[in-house]
Amino acid sequence: MLKLKIAIVGCGWVAGNQFENGFALLRDLFDVAVCCEIDPVRLDAFAGKYGIAGRTTSYADVLAMPDIDAVSICTPPSEHHSMVRAALAAGKHALCEKPFTSSLELMDDVIAVQKTSKARVMPIFQYRYGPGFERVRALVRSGLGGKLYVSSIETAWLRGAAYYQVPWRGKFATELGGVLVTQSIHIHDLFMCLAGPVAKVAAFKATRVNPIEVEDCAVASLQMKDGSLASLTATLGSARPSTRMRFCFENFTIERHCFDLEAPKPALEPWTIVPMRPELQRDIDAATAGFETNGLFFAGQFRSFHRSVTGDRPFDITLEEARRALELITAIYSAAESGQSESLPIDSRHPRYKGWHSDR
Ligand SMILES: NC(=O)c1ccc[n+]([C@@H]2O[C@H](COP(=O)([O-])OP(=O)(O)OC[C@H]3O[C@@H](n4cnc5c(N)ncnc54)[C@H](O)[C@@H]3O)[C@@H](O)[C@H]2O)c1
How far is the CA of 341 from the centre of ligand 1 (A)? Predict the structure, then answer.
C-alpha cells in the first residue's frame, strides 16, 4: 500500500483533532512527515506531542519539499484560498478545512485552477463519515422513500466567551461568519446530501448569544429543487447542545436527534426509520442490509482521500459540494439582510458573488 507523505499546515485545535482521530489511526496509509505553523512555540509543541520529525514556520518551504504528496490546510478560514491555490500550483494534493473560501468567486477560482493542475483538493466534511448517516444516505439514494415532503434541521449548540478568546473567531475579516459558516455548515451539508439542491431561501439572522460581530442565531425557510420544503435553525445558545434532523418522505420518516458530546456526531447511529406502512419495512431492511462504513469522521474521510489519490479516482467530496455549502450561506445572508427571498443557483451576476457579507 502506497503511503502518502503529509504536511499539516496550521497546528491548532483542528490539526490535533485531525492527527489523533485521523492520521494516527491510519499509519499504514499516511506518514505525517512535516508540520507547519507560524507560531514557533506552538510548532514545537505540536511536533513534539505527535512525534513529527519535520517542522517549519514557512508554507513556501513545505510546498518546495519534493517528497510531500499532500498538505492538510488547518489554518483560519481567511488563509484557505491562497494556500489551496499555492498547493495546486506546486502540484501538491490538498485537504482543506471548512469554510473553504470567503466567496463564491474565490471558490470558482479554485474550481478553475484545479482543472489546470495535476493535483486535486478535497474539502473537509468529515461529519459525513459514520455508519448512521452513510446508511440513511444509501437508503435515500435507493429511491424507496418516494417523494420528500419536508425536512426540519436544527443545529442548537453552545459557545461562550472562552471559545471567542481565539483572536480570529467572532470577526468577519477572519472567521468570515458565525454559526452558519463555522458550525451548522456541517449539518447543512448532511442535509443537502439527503434533500438535494436548494431552489429558494427566506431567512433571518441575529447576534444574540455572544458579544461578537458575526451571527450566532439564524433561521431559514427553504424550497428545494424537488419541490419539498425545509426549515433550518442554528444557534450557539442552547443550554443542552443538540442536533436534530428529520426528513418526512412519502414512504418513511427518518430522524436523528443527538445531544451533548454527541451533538456534532449525527453520523453515528441511532437513526430511526419509521415506514408509512408496515409492509415497507422489509424493503427498507433489504436496502440497508450489509452496509459497511468507511471509518469514522476524519479517519473515514482520510481513508477515502487515500483511496482516491492512489487509485486515481474522483474524490467522494467535491469542490462543487464545498461551493454548494457557500452558496447556501450566501443566499441566507442575502435573504436575511435584504428581507427578500433569494433564488439559487448564484452566479457571477449576483451582488454577493464576491462575498456573502454586505461589507465586502
Ligand atoms: N472540520 C471541523 O470539524 C473543524 C473543527 C474546528 C475548526 N475547523 C476549521 O479549521 C480551521 C482552523 O480552526 P482551529 O480551531 O484549529 O484554529 P486554531 O486557531 O486553533 O489553529 C489555527 C492555526 O493556524 C496557524 N496559522 C495561521 N496562519 C498560518 C500560516 N500562514 N501558516 C501556518 N500556520 C498558520 C495559527 O497560528 C494557529 O495555530 C478553521 O477554518 C476552522 O473553521 C474545522
Answer: 33
Domain 130-293 sits in which CATH superfamily?
Dihydrodipicolinate Reductase; domain 2 (3.30.360.10)
Ligand 1 center to residue 15 CA distance, Å? Answer: 7
pLDDT at 360 over 60: no
**E-state strands within the chain:** 4-9, 30-36, 54-56, 70-73, 93-96, 121-123, 148-158, 198-206, 217-224, 229-235, 237-249, 252-259, 272-275, 342-343
Tell me which of 58, 75, 171, 317 to substitute to probe ligand 1's pocket, judged by most ligand atoms within 8 Å of the beta carbon.
75
Give me ligand 1 centre to Cα 100, in Å. 12
Per the CB < 8 A criterion, the answer to whether 230 and 151 are in contact is yes
The string of pLDDT tens digits covering residues 283-303 is: 999 998 877 788 999 999 999
Place of cell 447542545: 241
CA-closest residue to ligand 1 atom 36: 10
pLDDT, residue 67, reads 97
Ligand 1 centre from 165 Cα, in Å?
14
The answer to whether 72 and 94 are in contact (CB under 8 A) is: yes
264 CA: nearest ligand 1 atom? 3
pTM beyond 0.85, yes or no: yes
Phi then psi for residue 149, to 5 deg, are: -95, -65
- Cβ atoms of 252 and 155 within 8 Å: the answer is no
Give, as one character, the DSSP assignment of residue 51: T
Using the atom order of ligand 1, give the atom closest to the CA of residue 127.
Answer: 3
Closest-CA residue, ligand 1 atom 21, reads 12
**Domain map (residue ranges) of the chain:** 4-126+299-317, 130-293
Lay out the sheet containing 121-123: strands in order across. 54-56, 30-36, 4-9, 70-73, 93-96, 121-123
Per-residue pLDDT at 359: 64
For domain 4-126+299-317, the CATH class is: alpha beta
Q: What is the average per-residue pLDDT within 67-93?
A: 97
4-126+299-317 and 130-293 share one fold: no
Q: For ligand 1, which residues put their CB under 6 angstroms from it?
A: 9-15, 36-39, 42, 59, 74-77, 79, 97-98, 124, 126, 166, 182
